[in-house]
Every structure is written in structure tokens, then in C-alpha cells.
Description:
The protein has 850 residues and is an alpha+beta fold. It has 27 helices and 22 strands. Helix 3 crosses helix 12, helix 3 runs antiparallel to helix 14 and helix 10 (311-347) packs parallel to helix 14 (414-440).
Amino acid sequence: xxxxxxxxxxxxxxxxxxxxxxxxxxxxxxxxxxxxxxxxxxxxxxxxxxxxxxxxxxxxxxxxxxxxxxxxxxxxxxxxxxxxxxxxxxxxxxxxxxxxxxxxxxxxxxxxxxxxxxxxxxxxxxxxxxxxxxxxxxxxxxxxxxxxxxxxxxxxxxxxxxxxxxxxxxxxxxxxxxxxxxxxxxxxxxxxxxxxxxxxxxxxxxxxxxxxxxxxxxxxxxxxxxxxxxxxxxxxxxxxxxxxxxxxxxxxxxxxxxxxxxxxxxxxxxxxxxxxxxxxxxxxxxxxxxxxxxxxxxxxxxxxxxxxxxxxxxxxxxxxxxxxxxxxxxxxxxxxxxxxxxxxxxxxxxxxxxxxxxxxxxxxxxxxxxxxxxxxxxxxxxxxxxxxxxxxxxxxxxxxxxxxxxxxxxxxxxxxxxxxxxxxxxxxxxxxxxxxxxxxxxxxxxxxxxxxxxxxxxxxxxxxxxxxxxxxxxxxxxxxxxxxxxxxxxxxxxxxxxxxxxxxxxxxxxxxxxxxxxxxxxxxxxxxxxxxxxxxxxxxxxxxxxxxxxxxxxxxxxxxxxxxxxxxxxxxxxxxxxxxxxxxxxxxxxxxxxxxxxxxxxxxxxxxxxxxxxxxxxxxxxxxxxxxxxxxxxxxxxxxxxxxxxxxxxxxxxxxxxxxxxxxxxxxxxxxxxxxxxxxxxxxxxxxxxxxxxxxxxxxxxxxxxxxxxxxxxxxxxxxxxxxxxxxxxxxxxxxxxxxxxxxxxxxxxxxxxxxxxxxxxxxxxxxxxxxxxxxxxxxxxxxxxxxxxxxxxxxxxxxxxxxxxxxxxxxxxxxxxxxxxxxxxxxxxxxxxxxxxxxxxxxxxxxxx
Length: 850
């Protein structure tokens, strides 16, 4: 008996050789298994070639599901699971962030506080810092933009990053000696692009902010820095902060909380909760010792994925929602492919019967079917990976043209490859196992006698396919409702009035502080540039400020204040956001003056210091009394309130009003701050940019800037809502399309099985519309249970994302009703196409077949 037989006689020569030569037996067994596997593959390929339409639909369906899931997983991997590319043991890292006792996230830590953490925390083995800093690279008149991180000397050691060339910083280069060590580690990208991969780059100098720095190392190619989503060009000791234009407050003022990252590694055996208790106790001692800057300020320790500065702070919730939607899509894909395989298995019953009759084992038959499914899914996976490379930059495409080095690509790394392989395996089992197992139940005699009209193709199979369609419909309903709610939410958020005018306005960010210019030089530059531009053709108005509302959430400057006559609540933090603005700013922006006066040219540095507050500031500190003439202590002196203006939006359009104030640009703008110039025109705001560039360079050869319409810049504040709305809508569309394909497949097969029945009915007098009614009723009976289950599931699941919805309830009846009607309409369309074949059945042909 040959080894290929399913059962072996124990006394055959083949069995005797197995007993006497066990190793040879194993070799023959492996060879036999490999041979049959190759046979399965060859047979599968022939089957796919002869059924290419079925194969194409299945492969494309699988490719879409796998590509979307792999793409979103790659984003989650790069933003949340492995946010620090190129970093060793990133799972052991945590972040220290600053919060107020009333729950507001200040996020960043001051350098002075960091030194206290570094010297006093006993449960932390290492602590490093980084500060985001834009720099001017190159010579005047030919300058470019570079993005740097000012870091502690142990930065690369804490992150376990070794330069591919040269060294990282020495301990003495991080000592508190401002400007003593002008050295830099450059990125691999800068090394390749600017220095053409020169192996002798070490020791060369690079000009940053009109200062020469010596290159001591080159970072690894995959290392981007410690701000998730940003790509840095260069790293240097934080003691170079003054020379890099951050202002004296960075190194010396405890209230200057401008560090981007405070990264810690805990000692072995120490939990994050234990370290949290220690750092909170230390923050409390600092608050008691320095009430002027630290009153009401606490510190928290969070995992990197939960940080608030960086892409993870923006995309955490949208990516969670997207991943959930993608899981729904993958389940729909499995159900759809299982339906296709079931319909194909029904048509192959005679083939299965013949193979069983000729001695093939049922296990071998199941293995053949699983091999076919695996090849289908593998082909879909390969096509899905190619499609993923196209989808990978979707997050970047949704970004407004902000002046930051964002790169939110996930990339096809080891984690994504592993996820894709697991998805292929899971889909193979989920989609192929049910049809394969049902083939085991085929009745051999009935299959051969009836030509394959019974067996697994009966009522049970039809019910199973109907159940799969119901699951698809339910999941599509969840996706539709989610997309509808987030689309409505994004639409309402986009229509919220920001409290200022954005139409026909361009915003240009300048970085003269980072080029080493003094506060007076920059104030003079702004004033002269405005005078020159106001006379340009098509220009309606010009203003400038150190913070443009809604363009960069969470970056508005802050000052610690003390309001005369106001008694703060226990631990109330009075570190408030503010902006410095010139005369005419409120009129330019369309922010209405409620009381007092605007700033004037008389508000010079040598004049008494003044400020303007918003109405929430006035109401919070003075109640119904007028704020005009009241004194507020800021920094080293008292400031008099001279005006009150209408509330507007500052960080995002959806936030509640909070106290905010404005200071005169001439009195308060200084080194370490950057400014933006806003130009309002009669037409396209970008048309005046060539004129702006000429005038700016005529005044200062280091006047490097980037420009975008203010309407586009404001769009950044709604980026999380935009991501959730657009990508959820795309995913919901795919879910709906695949569900419609599944329903079409089931109804098409069901109608083909009832052709004779419809013919008999029509021969007995039933009208074509009666047949359509029967088919439609059956289709709705398949759809409605899934619709109801999906609606209930959505109502439960979406409660967890209520915080992301703007002025829309998860139980919004308009969205729920609209999604249900839309799904029913798609169901009717998917049903009508096969129903037309039933309506066109010739009764005579059907009766003759009967």
C-alpha cells in the first residue's frame, strides 16, 4: 500500500521499514507531507485560474481589509506602542509632566524644577530633558530652517542611543555653564543631505543662529528625537539655550516651563505608582518653597504613550476609535470571504464526493480547502502590503501646512510585519475553517446520487450564510453610526465662531530670536515691516503677535499673576495664558472692545505697564465690577488693566472660555519669543507673500519665515476631530460596501436555488412584482436583525468616546435614523440586482427543468 493512502496495513513492507528504520521513516514522512502540500498548492492554483472572478473578488476584499488594518496598526505602533524610534528599551521610559491642582495640564517642566528632580528623586535611576527649538541654519541671506532639541548631557545615555559616528555628550558638557560647550550631534538625515555622508564630518563646524558649533557625532538613521511625531535635525546641550535664542528664562526662571520632554528611567523593582508618590511629594515641597511660581502645581509620571506633548497627545483617542473600526472591517472581510467560500463549496459538492469515493480522507479534504484559503489570504496580504504603502501617509496628508517637522508615517517595520502575518493567519482560520468543516459533513451517497444538490448546500448552509450577512450588517451599522456622529461633530466644530476674523488673512512665522536678535531689534523689525506692507497693493491691514490663536494649541505663553484684591482658592494656580500684541491688533482681528481702550503707540517700554483682559478674566477676578484701572502683579511689577475685550478661542474652537490677557508688544516682547505677521488682503492672502519676502529680507537677511492662510493654520486645532471624521467615514464606506457585496452574494445564490420555484409561481399567475416583493422581504429579514443589533452595539460603544463629540449626543436620533435608512437603501440596491434575474425567469423553461 503506498504511503499516500489514508489508512495503512500494519504488516505491509512499508510499515516494517518504518519500524526498522525510524529515521528514514521520519524523512519519508516529512517528504510525503511536503509532497502532498505541494500537490495542494498546485491544485489550488489551478482552481483559482479556472475560477478567476471568484479569486479576484476574494483577494481584493482581503487586500482592503488587511491593508487598512495594517496601516492603522503601523500608526498605533509608531505613535503609541513604540513612540521613540531607534531608542533602546523604550518600554522602560516614563514622562514627567506638570499639572495644576484643578486638573489643567501645563505639561512642560521648567529647567530649574528639573534640576531639583534630578538631585532629589531617589526612585529614579536616570532623568533627561529635551527642549524643542527652531533654529536658523547657515549664513545670512542664504539661511534655512533647522529643528533642534536642547538636551541634558545624559540624554542619549538615558534613551540608550549610540551615535553611528563619533560620540554623544560628556557629563561636563551638561554642567551649568551657559554657552561653554558649543557642540552638536547631527541627525543622520542632515549628515546625508547637507554633508553628503562625509565620514570626516566630525570636528567640522555648523552655523546655527549665527554661532559656530562643532559636530561631535551623528545619530542613528531611525532616531528622530524625544517628541513623538517630530523629526529633529540636531541636538546640543541645553546650556546653549541663550545662544540659541530661547531667552534667559529657560535656564534661570522656575516659572518658564518650556521643556518639551522630561524623560525618566525607574530603578529596578520600582513601580510607576511608587515613583509618582515621591515626585508628588517633591512637587508639594517646591510649591511651598516657591509659591510665586509653583503654587498649585503638581507633577505626574505617565507612560510615554499617555504623554500630552507630541503626536500621542493629539492622536490617542482618534487612533483608538480607528483601530476599533478596523477590527469591525476585518470581521466583515472574514464573513464576506467565508460566504464566498461557502458558495464555492456548495458548487463543488460533486467534486468532494468523487474525491471521497476514490479514497481521499476527510482530513486531507479539509487541508486542501484550508490551503486554498491560505493562498487566497496570502495573496490578499501581499496586495494589502502594497496598498498599505500608499495609505501610510494618510495622516500626513490630513495635516494642515503647519511650520513644524511633522512626520506621522508608521512605516512597514517588524511590528507591522508581525501584525500582518497574524492577520493573515487569523483570517485564514476564521474564513476557511467553517467551509472546510462543513465539507466533513457532506453525505457521500446523496452527493453522488443527486449531483451535489444536497449535502452542505442545504438549508443549514443557507442559514449560516444568512447569519454571516447579519453579522456584516450589524458591524456596518456600528461603523456608519460612528462615522455619522464624528462627521456631524466635526462639521459643528468647524462652524464654531472663533471670535476673530480669519478670511483673506495670511500668517507668517518668524524666528529672529533663534537667530540671536535682541528684543528691541525684533520690535523695530515688526514696526518697520508693517509700515512698508500697509502701502502694498491689495493689503487691507497688517499686525503681529507672539501667539496666533488656534494655530498651535497649548503653546500660548504664560505668566504667573497676582490680582490685587483677589484671594485665590487653596492651591489655585494663577499661571495664565497671554499674548503680546501691537496697537490696532483687536480691530484687525475683529475682537470687540467691551470697555476701556486698546493699546496705543504711547504704550512704550518706559511708560507705565498696561494690559487688556478678556471678559472671562474680568468675571472670574472682579465679578460684576469693572476691571478698568485694577492692578495685576506680573513678574517684577504691577500692571494696570486699561481695557476689556470679548472672549475668543485660543487653543481649540471647542474649549470653554477661560481667563486670558494681552500685553503691549512694545513693552513685553523680548528674546526667546518668536512672532508671527498677519496680513489681510482684498483677495488671495498668499498673493502678497513675494512682497513680504522682499521687504523682510531688505530689513533683515535672517528673516526666514513660512506662510500659510490663517484659515488653514486654524484647522490644525481640529486635527484630531478631522482624523476621526474622515478616516472613520472611509472605513465605514468600506464596511458598507463589503456588507453589500456579502448580501448580494447570498441573495444571488438563494435566487439561483429557487429559479424553478419562481418559474412555477409565475406559471400559476404570480406577477413579476410579486416575485420582487418576495425577494425583497427575504433580504430585509436578513438585514433588519443585524441593523437592530448594530444600533444597540453602537449606542453602548460610543459612550466611551462622548468626550470627542462636539454638540452631538451618541444617541443623536438624526444620525441613528439616517444611518438606518442609508443601510436599508443599500440593502435594497444589493437585492434588486439578483431579484431582476428572478423576475425575468421564463416559466416554461423552469417547468421543463422541473
